[in-house]
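thought: user wants a sequence for this fold. calling inverse folding tool.
action: design(structure=
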């Protein structure tokens, strides 16, 4: 009995011990859980009330060759209305006055705003979009309107600030300037984005209301670094000339698209690049960069390369006679025909190039290289025609040169190559080769940028990269091919446009498209590539027009564009370079005539331009971005300015402007 009692007592003591141990464990668990929950809760609270906010860096500007502005970032505003924040009394008492004010500002009938606002107020819309991309003068005007002048809390006036990229060449070079956004990277904006975009900053902010945050510290955690300014090679004057010359011909010929590239021979600077494509509305817009992207069969412009290869290997001389069979040659079961020449068949190499004889060039190359086609292909590879140039502008297509022993080589590949078929080159790749001929054999990589600056200080200057030096060919071969190209314009396919006062050299090209598709009507690419002046080249240029409906030979479609450009530029050639002082005087004169393109040159020099008659919405953001303190009245064009044109400017200087009411 006693033994049983001891077991019972021992069992109870175990139960009591287990009970207290369980309670202790539970307490420890809860303490641990509370501590972790508290830390998690604390972290959650912090995350909801404290944030790290990115501070966007100012994107750098892009300038033209004359320091005029091509691209800049400006501030724009989107306006929304929170109708729930507006009391019924305030709304009913002021809605008519507000609609009258909006009618005056936006040029829409007051009834439009009245009906819309009544509907949105009844619906209780808290985020109604009133306007997008407003400039600061319009924003300031809106803030003074009835209801809106009560602010966001009482007047429901919500302002969202954003940065917009503005291009001054919107109509004559949109694709050349390009973009760097959700669409990807293109043009100058895409090519030099890593320099232009700068580095975003960071700072801690604390929530003080549902939509309002304030900086937690007096300074930023990491200050943003502005983007660098890019000074391009684009010449606005020449860009404009090329644009209008191409647009006129595209409109006449009803072509699908076309492009023009103008290069300075010795420097390789791209002075103008225009790409235009027909839209569904039968207008022409700059939508794709055909100059860099579109690889196609070059046609007869390739004959120059074929002749130069034969000259280099001494397979031909200028006095030899080639029997062109009256313009028709049967070769490997296929017929090669001449488009222009209808003579007796006796031609020398110079005439073959001048008159663009397919039969003549095919006989020269096939007869001399059929047993060793690699010898011919080696010249093309030596000239880097089988590789990309590697220009900074994104989207360059790979060229295509067929090679013996590969699946794309056949018994007729070599003769058909000689007049520009079975190969692919872009307009810029073709121009780079012709520019080397104009540059006495030195092949250089085209460049689009001269200099990089940061806050006005030069940080890098760009020199011309040499692709091949000392020369693509011997001096004797170059002299002969230059003479032949000059003869194309004097005596050959382009002689219609020869004028002794405007001499240029080059080669026409016409290429059939879609010839391999049975039943499809033929269409063509028309081209002309060359340089001027013929005896002392300063500029090289290529014109390519695709699928014209009226005319299709290069002489009919492409040469007129080249001719207009050359004749427009010739007056500039040979003029003495003015002294810096003289240039400044001329530009000051231009500024006094309110030239939009010259503003930023004078801001860089710290000089005030004449901005009379310039819309306030355009000039005020530019002035503010230059660190000037602008005070103004009105919303239209500038009527008066407190700082006279030509006066020196200081940072944070106050400038008073009066605008049209």
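)
observation: tool returned 661 residues.
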């Amino acid at each position: 009995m006693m033994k049983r009692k001891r077991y019972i007592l021992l069992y109870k003591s175990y139960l009591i011990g287990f009970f207290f141990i369980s309670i202790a464990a539970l307490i420890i668990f809860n303490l641990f859980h509370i501590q972790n929950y508290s830390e998690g809760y604390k972290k959650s609270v912090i995350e909801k009330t404290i944030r790290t906010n990115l501070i966007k860096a100012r994107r750098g500007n892009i300038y033209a060759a004359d320091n005029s502005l091509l691209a800049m970032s400006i501030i724009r505003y989107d306006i929304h209305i929170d109708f729930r924040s507006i009391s019924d009394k305030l709304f009913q008492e002021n809605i008519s006055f507000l609609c009258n004010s909006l009618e005056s500002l936006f040029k829409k009938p007051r009834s439009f705003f009245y009906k819309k606002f009544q509907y949105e107020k009844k619906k209780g819309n808290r985020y109604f979009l009133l306007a997008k991309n407003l400039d600061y003068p319009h924003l300031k005007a809106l803030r003074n309107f009835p209801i809106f002048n009560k602010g966001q809390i009482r007047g429901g006036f919500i302002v969202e600030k954003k940065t917009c990229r503005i291009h001054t060449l919107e109509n004559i070079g949109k694709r050349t300037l390009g973009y760097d956004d959700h669409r990807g990277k293109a043009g100058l904006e895409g090519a030099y984005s890593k320099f232009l975009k700068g580095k975003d900053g960071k700072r801690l902010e604390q929530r003080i209301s549902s939509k309002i945050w304030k900086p937690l510290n007096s300074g930023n955690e990491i200050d943003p670094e502005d983007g660098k300014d890019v000074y391009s090679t684009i010449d606005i004057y020449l860009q404009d000339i090329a644009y209008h010359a191409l647009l006129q011909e595209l409109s006449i010929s009803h072509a699908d698209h076309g492009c023009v590239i103008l290069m300075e021979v010795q420097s390789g600077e791209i002075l103008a690049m225009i790409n235009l494509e027909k839209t569904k509305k039968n207008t022409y817009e700059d939508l794709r960069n055909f100059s860099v992207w579109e690889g196609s069969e070059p046609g007869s412009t390739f004959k120059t390369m074929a002749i130069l290869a034969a000259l280099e290997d001494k397979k031909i001389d200028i006095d030899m006679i080639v029997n062109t069979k009256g313009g028709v040659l049967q070769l490997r079961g296929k017929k090669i025909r001449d488009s222009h020449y209808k003579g007796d068949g006796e031609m020398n190499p110079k005439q073959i190039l001048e008159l663009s004889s397919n039969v003549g060039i095919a006989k020269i190359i096939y007869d001399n290289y059929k047993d060793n086609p690699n010898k011919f292909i080696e010249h093309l590879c030596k000239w880097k025609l089988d590789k990309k140039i590697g220009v900074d502008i994104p989207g360059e297509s790979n060229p295509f040169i067929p090679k013996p022993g590969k699946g794309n080589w056949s018994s007729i590949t070599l003769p058909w190559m000689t007049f520009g078929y079975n190969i692919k080159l872009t307009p810029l790749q073709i121009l780079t080769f012709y520019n080397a001929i104009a540059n006495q054999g030195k092949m250089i990589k085209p460049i689009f940028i001269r200099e990089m600056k940061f806050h006005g200080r030069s940080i890098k200057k760009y020199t011309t990269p040499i692709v091949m030096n000392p020369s693509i060919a011997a001096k004797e071969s170059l002299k002969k091919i230059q003479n032949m190209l000059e003869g194309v314009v004097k005596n050959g396919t382009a002689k219609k446009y020869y004028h002794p006062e405007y001499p240029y050299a080059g080669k026409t090209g016409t290429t059939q498209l879609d010839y391999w598709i049975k039943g499809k009507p033929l269409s063509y690419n028309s081209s002309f590539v060359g340089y001027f002046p013929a005896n002392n080249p300063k500029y090289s240029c290529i014109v390519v027009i695709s699928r014209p409906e009226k005319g299709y030979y290069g002489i009919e479609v492409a040469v007129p564009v080249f001719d207009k450009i050359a004749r427009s530029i010739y007056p500039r050639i040979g003029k003495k370079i003015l002294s810096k002082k003289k240039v400044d005087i001329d530009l000051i004169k231009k500024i006094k005539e309110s030239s939009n393109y010259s503003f930023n040159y004078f801001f860089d020099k710290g000089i005030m331009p004449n901005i009379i008659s310039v819309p306030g919405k355009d000039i005020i953001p530019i002035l503010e971005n230059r660190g000037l303190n602008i005070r103004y009245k009105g919303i239209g064009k500038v009527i008066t300015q407190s700082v006279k044109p030509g006066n020196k400017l200081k940072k944070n200087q106050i400038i008073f402007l009066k605008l049209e009411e």
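thought: summarizing for user.
answer: Here is the designed sequence. The mean pLDDT is 86.
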